[in-house]
Amino acid sequence: MAAAWRAEIVSGACSRGIRRKIREKISMENLLEIKHMRKAFDELEVLKDISLTVKKGEVVSVIGPSGSGKSTLLRCATLLEKMDGGSLSYLGETVCKPQQGDAGDSVYVSKKELKKFHRYFGLVFQNFNLFPHYSVLKNITDAPLRVAGIPKQEAQERARELLSQLGLEDKADAYPCQLSGGQQQRVSIARALALRPEILFFDEPTSALDPELTGEVLKVIRQLAQEHMTMIIVTHEMNFAKEVSDRIIFMENGLIQEEGTPEELFHSSKERVQEFIGKLSDG
Amino acid sequence: MQFGTVLLQLSKGLVVSVEIFFLTLLFSLPLGLVVAFGRMSKNAVVRTVTKVYISIMRGTPLMLQLIVVYFGPYYLFHVRISAAYRFIAVIIGFAVNYAAYFAEIYRGGIESMPKGQYEAAQVLGYSKMQTFFRIILPQVVKRILPSVTNEIITLVKDTSLAFVIAVAEMFTVAKQIAAAETTVVPLMIAGVYYYVFNLAVALAMERIEKHYRYYEG
Ligand SMILES: Nc1ncnc2c1ncn2[C@@H]1O[C@H](COP(=O)(O)OP(=O)(O)OP(=O)(O)O)[C@@H](O)[C@H]1O
Ligand SMILES: [Mg+2]
Q1: What domains can be seen in chain B, in order of their start residue?
Q2: Which of A107, A215, A269, B140 would be a feasible disulfide site paired with B109, CB 3.0-4.6 Å?
Q3: What's the DSSP call for residue A45?
Q4: In contact, A123 and A131? CB cutoff 8 Å
Q5: Which of A78, A131, A132 lies nearest to residue B123, judging by beta carbons?
């Protein structure tokens, strides 16, 4: 395919049709596409109309006040919660979309089809949620073994590789309860990475940690950003968000109020954004 | 009757008690899990039925339940009760009774599990079955072991209730000898046997609890 395009481009016959094809090819690189996502808990409209596209290799931070729906957004994207309206797709494959229009009620693909999407994403929780009865190594290898069907040897090699990348090579046989919060969070990142997700979501990965442990986790995320891991990070660490993100999204009242490069956001003309960032950037 | 004979007779009775004990556990431990699922079911009918079942099992004497299980078939269907059914009735009676208690213990344990464990497993792609049997249940077992140990120790003593439908377990035997020889010695010896039995049970449970001490939480 690609060779054929190139040939046509070289021969100067780059028709509109071909350009469209190229554009489609690029939009395939839209790893995650959310359009007009809505979500309510009973009467409470938590997400009102969220549209968000994330390309391969992009690092997007989500900031916003408590209760603005950041976690709910991640939970809908990771299928922990069902969205009410709008569409969601990974790599161009539909998870759910309205029967007609863009913003109607979401209709999900079948349960069986939904399963495969778990391959595409990983989620790192604020409070780690490691499996306490499994050793660090087993926490990381169990899902690859049981869910992805990867051979034991391979899963273990991959796990040890990840552990050494994350500075935990000596903790393989430890149990989560024997680790510090920062170490537990790094293990949970390794557990998510072991399944080789296309995109990794973080929901306030350092909020449960002491300031001195926060650094070691941020270092790991920074490292992942350098390796062009696609990530969406909900965080209150403004300086960190500014440093690693290609894009920052400011959410409030279930809407994206402002979106742009860190530069753009930190110099936003919107007073509310300025106020929020200013409040959190102190200290 | 010679002391040696008494000991031997009581030992035979003890074997029956031990049989009742193990068979009851064998059936009631898994049955309890099924009942616990019923109790937590999304289906309101299933939930109500199990709730009523548990409440009856816990709210009426086990002795009465044994009588109902033993004589029930005769009164309901007018079938002749065979001698072999005595023992079977004891096992059925104990199993359905203890299943109710275990169900409530399981339910407490399952409901005490943090939601995050389910969610972590779900995001990693575990199926519902895998999540329950690989992630949730092993942790629940650790949490409920002390309560289960309590129940099991009670069961050792409860086996003596089988006397009510004349199954020749240890207590029945002890009472017979005591009546025939007009002495309480056999009953005292039975008491010692029960105590030793329970000591063994407690030690075994302690070992299992120790095994689970390899992690905290
Ligand atoms: N399962 C639920 N049932 C009912 N209400 C919920 C549920 N989950 C979230 N909410 C509500 O939705 C709103 C948004 O919650 P969400 O957790 O998404 O906010 P957030 O932006 O992540 O906040 P924080 O910064 O405090 O984590 C809150 O008002 C919350 O109480
Ligand atoms: Mg949140």
Answers
A1: 3-214 (1.10.3720.10)
A2: B140
A3: E
A4: no
A5: A78
